[in-house]
Amino acid sequence: MNHHTAPPHAEPFFLKAGTGARFCVFHAAAGACRGAFLYVHPFAEEMNKARRMAALQARAMAAQGYAVLQIDLYGCGDSSGDFGDARWEIWLDDLARGAQWLRERLGGALEQEVGLWGLRLGALLALDYARQAAQPPSTLLLWQAVTNGANFMTQFLRLKLANQMLAEGQEKNGGTAALRATLAAGEPLEIAGYALAPALAQSIEALDAAKFAPPRCPLHWFEIVAQEGRPLPPAAARVLQGWQAESEVSAMTVPGQPFWATQEISECPALLDATIAALKEACHAA
């Protein structure tokens, strides 16, 4: 597959919201519309690192007949608001708004509910949205899903500790526990150029996919591993094992680099190919 072909049609625009506007890019389906997906981007700087892969995948999906809407959540990217004012509830509302826009835009051409495609914390946001939505998404495509919000927040807080060590030559006493105490006291933290609000941190901390009910729709879970053939990470395997008895779940690993965290912008062609293959298989099975 040539991942560098020009998109059939990509339309940037601003979607009006109660709090300003959200920057979006709509990728129209080539030919008859087989379905639609809303892309849920990852957290903070991971969003910027992943922009290229998100664009490549959106174009590839559009070429296969799937309309895709990429939306910058409140306080992220080119959307209204400051990251420090972002809240999980606002992001959930953004997904509802984006899904509704797709339904209205596609009208009768959309014969099923909008699907969700999430990366990293965006995958956890997609799962949280899907379990609360009146109608489940048609499909969940999850890339390298964060399964536990508290563990993810620990990793994010460690970025601040690492920066402190670089600046001061030593780690602050208390480590992540001290940073959590600051948040608990209602004070925001500046981490890697992003202002983390206590309310947002608290919402993320409380999320654990292992405690979610099984998804009410087909789920395709993808994990990037260092070498081909390696198994799913234990955390992902535990979550999926708990769902497989009651939900239509498929999971696979693909070799590649963690493009959301590499120093230079990088790609993972195997992930692009695997995602399209899963969509084709699902389409033939329907």
Number of strands: 10
User: Which descriptor suits the 3D outline?
Assistant: globular
Oligomeric state: single chain
State the strand order across the main sheet. 1-2-4-3-5-6-9-10
Helix content: 40-55%
What is the number of helices? 9
Radius of gyration: 19 Å
- The percentage of residues in β strands lies in 15-25%
Q: Which stretches of 5+ consecutive residues score pLDDT under 50?
A: 1-7
- Average pLDDT taken over every residue: 92
What's the end-to-end separation, in Å? Answer: 24 Å
Order of helices and strands: EEEHHEHEHEHHEEHEHEH
Q: Helix- and strand-based class?
A: alpha/beta
Give the biggest sheet: 8 strands, mixed
Task: Give a verbal description of the structure.
Helix 3 crosses helix 4. The strands form 2 sheets. This protein has an 8-stranded mixed beta sheet, with helices on both faces. Mean pLDDT is 92; it is low at 1-7. The radius of gyration is 19 Å and the shape is globular. It is built from 9 helices and 10 strands. With 286 residues, the protein is an alpha/beta fold. The chain has helices at 45-49, 51-63, 88-106, 121-132, 149-168, 175-184, 198-205, 234-244, 269-285, and strands at 10-16, 21-27, 35-40, 66-71, 115-119, 140-143, 189-191, 194-196, 219-225, 249-255. Helix 4 links the parallel strand 5 (115-119) and strand 6 (140-143). It is 40% helix and 19% strand. It starts with 9 loop residues before the first strand and ends with a helix. The longest helix has 20 residues, at 149-168.
